[in-house]
């Protein structure tokens, strides 16, 4: 086995960084995953594309075992798997043929590539691609933010839930051209909405903080809901922080459009249809909703603290990525562009 | 091979010291074969959680002191390193074998001699689990040290509520701190039999602000300056951390060292397993995710279908449908027969339980066999490899598998089962000690299962009444109401407010707390009477008392309207007279007379009440002359 | 027509009063007979005591009258500012006293006493300076930037004319002054408790009031009551329950027979309040408890929101009846009343789960029924209730769970409202700054004075009728839309 040369320590380091909260935002995780891959490709012990793909697969497995909720890192690795396939095809000069009508009609016999073939040009091509990808990661948020003025017009009231780095940039970018009001829902139990509100107010956007319970009441005056998400699922649904489902329902009730800002690495090829699915949710510390000092009552009551909500696709109006807007029904297609179908399940 | 870890030890790596063994007999007979740190805790071993906590907390180097079954611990640690478990990446672990040590203090003296500690370090008592982020606290400690050179230790406490399961009575402490969080006073209230606590007066004179806490849970985690180890070496009588804290506080001037504390709030959790009771409560709290992000892996789908009260954890073990498990944790590879009933118990690995067995509030050690139809109840602990024969009843006993010096032959209950003598069985003069033993067993309150706290409190037998302070009643509405009434009345009396306003105030608090009319009557009268204790003693006492009562006449009129209210009033008098307050001997008769004369009470009710009194009780004696006088009057009356 | 039953009632009341009197008179005599040596009688004491009290009150009122008579209107306006300042001072002092008290308790946490006061956010330095919601909103109205434009109309601009009038505490019975503070400090919370407290305050007023000569009792009483309730309104807007109770009472006040003596009138009014409380509240509660009880089945999981006194009663009753069910308590900031509910239900032994409103869509799946309390039911069928109720109903509908709203008919209102903004109440925004479950400091605190940053703390919301399955009232289980019918019937009953 390869285990002597491949000790997985790089990915364990990544996991422990995430666990130790030295990497907090998904953006940071994305960047360090990219770094990990660059390192792996340039110094890793591999000779063929097959080897490399196996190395990456093992890292994905390791990640999804110890951090089942963490989609960003695995998605990036999954994307790179697809990149490897493509680059390999290019390198082995078979790409042109694969696209001919003849091959599509007569079946894809020659499509089965022998990835074990060792190609010297592959490494350089991959590293090239990765540096390109890195710039894409770095500019993704700005690209999304650049579209802000297409979606927000003057004197609108925007509601957002919790805090997302992308949403913050989006709103700030819009505020350069338009004046509008933002309603920030505080989003217990983490209350990230508070820090978002402070940051928006500092950049001179009229901001109102409301409690989670006031979402329905306020929704009747809201023009648009703009939120971030934890992951986008294959059916166009969301796994987002708990409370988002209620926001979506309220928006639906008042026919308010819901826009979800998301990076491509948040698109995950899994299908989930319900809220309490094993792999969807984790329970947080009960002390985040009721203080430990409440005493005897804690011995008896069951404190439910789910971290995530499943938001069905019909509650989402639009996804905005760095490539532009898409409706939830198009997510499956985006997925097939980013990942190879063989890599959906690892 | 994997020892070539890339973790480079920095010059100032954060160090932690874990003393792995308790040196008492809390966990006998199981600790004979399984060291405390290898106890299963929900789904992993205790040490796994402790080490993960340390690594997540930011510790880079840990020393583990082992005295018991060192080889097994070493084996486990090496296994972890081989599997590259999370903590192995960022933390180095050294095991220090110290079989000569017989106490916590010994370990630290040993450590001092070895000179391994470079600067401030984190000290863990046995059995600690927590989710605290240690680095900020360490930083705070260093800041404190810069201000106060003598700062030796920061003790971490967690804010907790009274009546909390994990607030072990043995750990109950009274802590006083000043505004800099310097500990001025620390007393384990449980160990003393006194009900009173004396604070030194200087404490209040020397500090502008003193906070006194009684709702703190000791996390058994401390942050120590390097001066701690020499202090332990200098003072051979320091056996535990508590000795240390007490010693330092007593001889503050001589040693020139001070203790600080840090009170954790929010999601920070810390606790230690040092007896079965804490083992149980920490297992439950861990299952309820209070130690997030240190959580057992569990299927989430179940989380609401099974409220806390019914959750059981089973690993790798088949449970037949006819068997019931309640609030229990079953270890790996165990077998459970048909129609087995297990509640509030812990079953370790590889246990075989045959059909029709009942187990409650007990711990079954590894490799035990419990044969058909047996019952293991009421805080029994079975050591490793015990075999309980068919249809035996094991109640409140410690059982071990082998014969040794501690066991007499007549205690044999089976081929592989010998009852260990409990100390409390012997004529233990020290009540406290016996109590401590009992309290260290699994939680008794759950015995009554689903019943409410009130009911279960009521069902406690006389013998357990002395323990009742741990089950301190929740601050219930009636008490709140009562204290509010006292407040308003005292204020009303002092400020000479109109009684009608006071009545309204009382009524509104009555609605606020949802108090029945009877309770209102009772509490209001009680409040008025209790106010008499604040009156100046001496000859003027009764006249001022009368003044007080006459002031409250409208209130008395308002509440004592009918016969049943009179009864409530009399009950209140009885209550006050029998309460802890020193009432004067004439007090009861004075009150009765006054109420009678002012027409608040009539004679039939007084006599009726008098009959309900226990003869020879103090109240009875005090009320007797008055009752006799009433009876005479009545007789005279009927004579006419 | 309408005179007949009234006089009947009067006769009855008189009987009762006389009966009582007789008893009182008999008692001392009896005592006399029984024991000759018993000293002085108490009835004197009592009489003088009461009379003294009345005299005092009367004197005050007369003084006030004199003042108003003597002073010209011009005078009045002159002194306005002065008086206002004085009043502010007094209020401030009261509040200060309150906060001081809470501080004292905080400092000695020897035993964590869960009292009303201790429940306030613990030891926060800014608590002391900003614990004055009334004053704050007033200042805000002047400076303006900290108001949310959308709900600008809801910020209460203290009625200046009003304030000048009520500056003089002599005008207002101390009971009402206290009540006002209790309302604004949210010591008395919940529409039932507020209505009860108001009625009991009116009772005290009835007992204490003395008509000046040449004035008709009811008229005079009405005037006094008006100024008292105006003051209360200034402290915190009336709940619908209070408005309705007050309206019923005023109706009675207007239709009282002028030929009765003052004492008779008093008795009639007191009796009226007693009956109102007994019939419209206590009996209604019992009836609703019974009705809901039928709907609770063994094995039910009931989701509730906040801490409605009625819902608590229902659940405790059902549990006493031996029903096996569990409860999911959903709670939300900033009031977090659900914790109190959790404590009470858990102590009673009911199996409870607790979740915050954001977890709603996770816990809703487990629920079989949703029980909600109400602040008021509006004529268009909308339910006005604690903020968040609409959200609970919305999620319940998304999961197809039945939503039962429990509401006494005395809380039905003739108002119509389609959203939560036209009429609402704004709470103290500073409540948001404190998070008791986190040890970190809140970023909002530092930016509190930023004009761009507002915090909106709405107290109520309006649930549209299509989200509510049924309303449980003491009359029947009805659809929301039958509110007008119930109102019509009730109005009909009253007019006969």
Write the layout of secondary structure elements.
The complex is a heterotrimer of chains A (346), B (640) and C (496).
Chain A: H1 9-19, H2 26-43, H3 49-66, H4 72-91, H5 95-98, H6 101-105, H7 121-146, H8 148-151, E1 157-161, H9 165-175, E2 181-185, H10 192-202, E3 206-210, H11 215-219, E4 224-227, E5 231-232, E6 238-241, H12 244-253, E7 258-261, H13 297-300, E8 302-303, E9 308-311, E10 318-321, E11 324-326, H14 331-338
Parallel strand pairs in A: 1-2, 1-4, 2-3, 4-7, 7-10
Antiparallel strand pairs in A: 5-6, 6-9, 10-11
Chain B: E1 15-19, E2 40-41, E3 44-45, H1 46-57, E4 61-66, H2 70-82, E5 92-97, H3 104-114, E6 121-124, E7 128-130, H4 134-147, E8 151-159, E9 173-178, E10 183-188, H5 201-206, E11 210-213, E12 216-224, H6 228-234, H7 241-250, H8 252-255, E13 258-264, E14 270-272, H9 276-287, E15 313-314, E16 324-326, E17 329-330, E18 335-336, E19 341-343, E20 346-347, E21 352-353, E22 358-360, E23 363-364, E24 369-370, E25 375-377, E26 381-382, E27 387-388, E28 393-395, E29 398-400, E30 412-414, E31 417-420, H10 431-439, H11 453-459, H12 462-465, H13 477-495, H14 499-513, H15 517-531, H16 541-551, H17 553-559, H18 563-578, H19 587-597, H20 603-612, H21 618-639
Parallel strand pairs in B: 1-4, 1-6, 4-5, 8-13, 15-17, 16-19, 17-20, 18-21, 19-22, 20-23, 21-24, 22-25, 23-26, 24-27, 25-28, 26-29
Antiparallel strand pairs in B: 2-3, 6-12, 7-14, 8-12, 9-10, 9-11, 29-31, 30-31
Helix pairs in contact in B: 3-6, 13-14, 13-15, 14-17, 15-18, 18-19, 19-21, 20-21
Chain C: H1 3-34, H2 42-70, H3 73-107, H4 125-129, H5 133-143, H6 160-167, H7 174-184, H8 191-208, H9 217-235, H10 240-254, H11 262-295, E1 300-305, H12 309-320, E2 325-331, H13 338-348, E3 351-356, H14 360-363, E4 369-373, E5 376-377, E6 383-386, H15 389-398, E7 403-406, H16 443-446, E8 453-456, E9 460-463, E10 470-472, E11 477-478, H17 483-495
Helix pairs in contact in C: 1-11, 3-6, 6-9, 7-8, 7-9, 8-10, 8-11, 10-11, 11-12
């Amino acid at each position: 086995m390869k285990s002597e040369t491949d000790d997985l320590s790089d990915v364990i380091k990544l996991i422990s960084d995430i666990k130790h909260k030295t990497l907090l935002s998904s953006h940071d995780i994305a960047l360090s995953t990219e770094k990990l891959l660059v390192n792996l490709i340039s110094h890793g012990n591999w000779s063929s594309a097959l080897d490399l793909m196996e190395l990456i697969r093992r890292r994905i497995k390791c990640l999804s075992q110890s951090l089942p909720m963490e989609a960003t890192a695995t998605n990036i690795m999954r994307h790179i798997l697809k990149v490897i396939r493509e680059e390999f095809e290019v390198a082995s000069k078979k790409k042109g043929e694969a696209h001919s009508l003849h091959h599509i009609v007569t079946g894809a016999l020659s499509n089965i590539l022998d990835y074990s073939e060792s190609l010297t040009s592959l490494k350089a091509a991959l590293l090239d691609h990765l540096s390109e990808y890195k710039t894409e990661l770095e500019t993704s948020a700005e690209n999304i933010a650049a579209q802000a003025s297409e979606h927000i017009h003057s004197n609108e009231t925007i509601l957002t839930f919790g805090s997302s780095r992308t949403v913050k940039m989006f709103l700030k970018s819009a505020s350069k051209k338009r004046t509008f009001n933002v309603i920030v829902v505080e989003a217990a139990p983490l209350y990230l909405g508070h820090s978002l509100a402070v940051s928006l107010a500092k950049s001179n956007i009229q901001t109102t903080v409301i409690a989670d319970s006031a979402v329905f009441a306020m929704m009747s005056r809201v023009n648009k809901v703009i939120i971030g998400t934890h992951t986008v699922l294959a059916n166009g649904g969301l796994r987002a922080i708990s409370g988002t489902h209620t926001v979506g329902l309220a928006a639906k009730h008042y026919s308010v459009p819901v826009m979800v800002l998301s990076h491509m690495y948040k698109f995950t090829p899994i299908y989930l249809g319900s809220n309490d699915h094993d792999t969807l949710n984790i329970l947080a510390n009960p002390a985040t909703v009721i203080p430990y000092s409440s005493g005897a009552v804690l011995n008896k009551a069951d404190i439910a603290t789910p971290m995530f909500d499943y938001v069905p696709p019909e509650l989402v109006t639009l996804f905005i990525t760095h490539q532009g807007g898409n409706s939830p029904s198009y997510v499956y297609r985006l997925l097939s562009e980013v990942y190879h179908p063989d890599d959906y399940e690892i | 091979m994997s020892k070539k870890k890339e973790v480079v030890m920095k010059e100032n790596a954060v160090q932690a010291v874990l003393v792995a063994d308790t040196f008492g007999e809390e966990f006998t007979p199981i600790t004979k074969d399984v060291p405390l740190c290898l106890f299963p805790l929900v789904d992993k071993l205790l040490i796994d959680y402790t080490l993960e906590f340390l690594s997540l907390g930011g510790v880079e180097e840990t020393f583990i002191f082992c005295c018991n079954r060192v080889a097994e611990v070493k084996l486990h640690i090496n296994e972890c390193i081989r599997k590259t478990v999370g903590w192995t990446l960022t933390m180095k672990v050294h095991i220090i074998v110290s079989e000569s040590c017989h106490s916590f203090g010994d370990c630290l003296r040993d450590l001092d001699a070895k000179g391994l500690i470079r600067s401030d370090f984190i000290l863990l008592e046995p059995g600690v689990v927590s989710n605290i982020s240690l680095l900020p606290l360490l930083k705070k400690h260093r800041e404190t040290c810069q201000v106060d050179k003598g700062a030796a230790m920061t003790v971490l406490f967690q804010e907790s509520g009274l009546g909390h399961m994990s607030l072990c009575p043995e750990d109950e402490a009274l802590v006083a701190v000043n505004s800099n969080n310097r500990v001025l006073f620390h007393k384990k209230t449980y160990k003393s039999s006194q009900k009173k606590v004396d604070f030194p007066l200087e404490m209040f004179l020397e500090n502008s602000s003193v906070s006194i806490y009684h709702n703190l849970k000791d996390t058994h985690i401390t942050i120590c300056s390097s001066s701690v180890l020499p202090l332990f070496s200098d003072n051979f009588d320091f056996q535990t951390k508590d000795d240390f804290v007490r010693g330092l506080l007593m001889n503050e001037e001589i040693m020139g060292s001070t203790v600080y504390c840090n009170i954790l709030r929010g999601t920070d959790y810390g606790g230690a397993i040092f007896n079965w009771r804490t083992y149980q409560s920490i297992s439950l709290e861990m299952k309820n995710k209070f130690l997030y992000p240190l959580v057992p892996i569990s299927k989430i789908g179940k989380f609401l279908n099974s409220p806390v009260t019914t959750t059981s954890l089973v690993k790798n073990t088949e449970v037949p449908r006819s068997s019931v498990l309640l609030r229990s944790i079953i270890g790996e590879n165990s077998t459970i027969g048909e129609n087995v009933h297990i509640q509030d118990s812990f079953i370790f690995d590889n246990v075989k339980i045959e059909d029709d067995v009942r187990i409650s509030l007990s711990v079954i050690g590894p490799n035990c066999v419990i044969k058909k139809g047996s019952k293991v109840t009421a805080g029994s602990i079975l050591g490793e490899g015990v075999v309980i024969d068919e249809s035996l009843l094991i109640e409140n006993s410690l059982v071990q598998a082998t014969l040794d010096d501690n066991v007499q032959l007549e205690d044999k209950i089976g081929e592989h089962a010998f009852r260990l003598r409990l100390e409390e069985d012997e004529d233990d003069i020290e009540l406290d000690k016996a109590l401590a033993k009992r309290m260290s067993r699994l939680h008794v309150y759950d015995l009554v299962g689903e019943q409410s706290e009130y009911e279960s409190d009521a069902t406690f037998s006389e013998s357990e009444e002395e323990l009742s302070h741990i089950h301190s009643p929740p601050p219930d509405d009636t008490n709140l109401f009562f204290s509010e009434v006292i407040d308003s009345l005292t204020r009303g009396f002092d400020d000479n407010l109109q009684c009608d306003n006071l009545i309204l105030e009382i009524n509104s608090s009555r609605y606020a707390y949802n108090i029945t009319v009877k309770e209102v009557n009772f509490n209001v009268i009680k409040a008025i009477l209790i106010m008499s204790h604040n009156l100046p003693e001496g000859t003027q006492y009764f006249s001022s008392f009368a003044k007080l009562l006459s002031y409250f006449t409208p209130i008395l009129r308002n509440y004592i309207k009918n016969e049943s209210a009179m009864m409530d009033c009399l009950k209140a008098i009885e209550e006050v007279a029998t309460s802890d307050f020193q009432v004067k001997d004439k007090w009861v008769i004075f009150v009765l007379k006054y109420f009678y004369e002012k027409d608040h009470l009539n004679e039939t009710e007084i006599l009726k009440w008098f009959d309900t009194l226990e003869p020879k009780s103090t109240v009875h004696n005090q009320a007797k002359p008055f009752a006799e006088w009433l009876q005479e009057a009545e007789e005279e009356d009927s004579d006419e | 027509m309408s005179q007949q039953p009234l006089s009947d009632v009067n006769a009855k009341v008189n009987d009762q009063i006389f009966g009582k009197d007789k008893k009182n008179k008999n008692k001392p005599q009896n005592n006399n007979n029984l024991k000759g040596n018993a000293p002085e009688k108490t009835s004197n004491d009592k009489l003088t005591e009461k009379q003294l009290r009345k005299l005092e009150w009367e004197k005050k009122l007369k003084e006030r009258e004199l003042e108003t008579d003597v002073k010209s209107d011009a005078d009045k306006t002159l002194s306005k500012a002065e008086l206002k300042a004085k009043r502010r001072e007094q209020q401030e002092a009261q509040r200060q006293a309150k906060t001081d008290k809470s501080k004292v308790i905080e400092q000695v946490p020897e035993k964590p006493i869960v009292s009303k006061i201790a429940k306030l956010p613990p030891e926060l330095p800014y608590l002391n300076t900003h614990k004055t919601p009334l004053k704050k909103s007033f200042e805000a109205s002047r400076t303006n930037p900290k108001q949310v434009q959308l709900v600008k109309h809801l910020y209460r601009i203290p009625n200046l004319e009003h304030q000048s009038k009520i500056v003089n505490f002599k005008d207002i019975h101390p009971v009402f002054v206290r009540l006002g503070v209790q309302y604004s400090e949210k010591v008395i919370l919940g529409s039932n408790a507020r209505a009860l407290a108001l009625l009991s305050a009116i009772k005290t007023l009835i007992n204490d009031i003395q008509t000046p000569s040449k004035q008709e009792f009811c008229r005079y009483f009405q005037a006094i009551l008006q100024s008292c309730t105006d003051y209360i309104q200034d402290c915190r807007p009336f709940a619908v329950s209070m408005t309705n109770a007050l309206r019923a009472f005023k109706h009675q006040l207007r239709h009282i027979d002028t030929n009765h003596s003052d004492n008779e009138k008093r008795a009639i009014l007191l009796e009226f309040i007693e009956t109102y409380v007994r019939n419209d509240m206590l009996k209604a509660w019992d009836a609703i408890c019974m009705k809901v009880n039928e709907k609770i089945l063994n094995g039910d999981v009931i989701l509730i929101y906040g801490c409605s006194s009625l819902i608590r009663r229902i659940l405790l009753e059902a549990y006493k009846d031996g029903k096996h069910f569990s409860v999911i308590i959903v709670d939300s900031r900033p009031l977090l009343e659900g914790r109190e509910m959790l404590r009470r239900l858990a102590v009673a032994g009911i199996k409870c789960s607790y979740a915050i409103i954001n977890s709603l869509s996770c816990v809703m799946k487990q629920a079989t029924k949703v029980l909600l309390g109400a602040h008021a039911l509006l004529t268009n069928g909308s339910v006005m209730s604690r903020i968040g109720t609409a959200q609970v109903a919305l999620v319940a509908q998304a999961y197809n769970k039945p939503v039962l709203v429990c509401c006494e008919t005395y809380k039905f209102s003739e108002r119509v409202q389609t959203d939560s903004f036209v009429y609402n109440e704004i709470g103290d925004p500073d409540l948001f700054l404190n998070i008791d479950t986190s040890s970190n400091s809140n970023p909002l605190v530092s930016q509190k004075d930023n004009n761009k940053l507002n915090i909106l703390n709405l107290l109520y919301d309006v649930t549209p009728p299509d989200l509510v399955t049924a309303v449980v009232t003491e009359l029947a289980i009805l659809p929301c839309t039958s509110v007008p019918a119930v109102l019509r019937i009730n109005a009909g009953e009253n007019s006969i």
